[in-house]
Amino acid sequence: MKRIISCIILALSLCASAASQSDIYKKCEKEKSLTTVYITRAMLQMLPANNMGKMDSVTISLLRDKIDNVLIVNADKPKGIEFLKNLRKEFSNNKNSDVLMQINEENSEMRLYCTPLGNGKSQYLLSVFGGSHATAIVIEGSLTLDEIMRMTNGFNTVSPRKSKKKK
Amino acid sequence: MKPSDIVQLRSLLARYYAAETTPQEESRLRELLTAPGLPDEFVPDREMMLSVEAIQPPVGFGQRLADRIDTLAASSASPVVKARRRPRRVVLLRWCAAAAAVIIIAVTAFTRVPSATATPTPLTPEETYEQMEMALTLFSETISKGYAALGAADAIDDEAAENYSVTPIFDNL
Q: Which residues contact A105 (CB under 8 A, 6 or more apart)?
């Protein structure tokens, strides 16, 4: 009897832990102090192929083909900012997550994490904390860091590396 | 047979049929019933008593019966307990299964059923584009800041390398 009860408790705890780890999106949705935007792959597929603004056609094609989903979370209230800090803490405590970039400025703090999900997929978290506002962006998909660089360089920046090469 | 014996015989028979006689009284009754000159009215009683005595239990039957009763009495506790424990275990198991089912259903309901606040507002392709543009801009700004800091560090290195001149120590000698 003890064995049966311990098996049931173990199974329930595993289910609970799996459910708690599986979906950060649902966690964010439940928090009312946050503004969340969740973009699915189906929605990205509906993006027009030709460029509409800053993004060129290559960037749009990467968005359509390589990204599974995107979660954008904004917080203006202390409770929401605290929630995003805890979310970032989960990533930093995760042994599988790597900190790709960490920038601390006078009033802002930016961190970029990457967590491999298996099957060539990764989860990127960018968290930006600045004063009374915080933003977290979670991108999941088969994107590599180079492709993210390609997308971000594709529309408004020139990296110092490139400028150095020109010398 | 004397009249007093007949009176005693009647009394003993009454007590015998009421199962109230002692062994001594039964012995006396047997003597009276087997005595010569027994009136005919007591003949059936004599046959009945002799028949009962003829079917006496075998030797040691009483002892074996007592031993058997003692054995059953000694072992009676465990079967009773087992008989009680088994239904209790089944009932407990059923309660556990029911509790587990309720917990699983509750967890499933909380995790699977979307709440009213979680109902997403569908985005148009234009809104999706704007959101993605904003997200990628933020990524871009962050990565650019990182590279800017790295570039500044590289520039300092380059300047240091250009300004650094190796002074031959032995030239002045």
A: B145
* Nearest residue of chain A to residue B96 (CA atoms): A5
- On whether the CB atoms of residues A91 and A113 are closer than 8 A, the answer is yes
Q: Are A73 and A34 in contact (CB under 8 A)?
A: yes
> Minimal Cα–Cα distance from A119 to chain B, Å?
24
SS3 call for A119: coil
Q: Tens digits of per-residue pLDDT, A114-130?
A: 999 888 888 999 999 98
Q: Is the pTM of this model over 0.95?
A: no
CB distance A134 to A147 below 8 Å = no
- Alpha-carbon gap, residue B40 to A110, rounded angstroms: 127
ipTM (interface pTM) = 0.70
pLDDT at residue B1, rounded to an integer:
78
How distant is the Cα of B69 from the closest Cα of chain A, in angstroms? 35
Interface test with B, best of A60, A104, A159 (most B CBs within 10 A): A159
- Residue B118: closest C-alpha in chain A: A29
- Please name the residue that has the structure tokens 């967890």: B107
Q: Which residues pair with B118 in a beta bridge?
A: none
A:93-132 residues touching chain B, CB 8 A cutoff: 101, 103, 105, 110, 112, 126, 128
Element (H, E) at B137: helix B125-163
How many angstroms away from the CA of B97 is the closest CA of chain A? 9
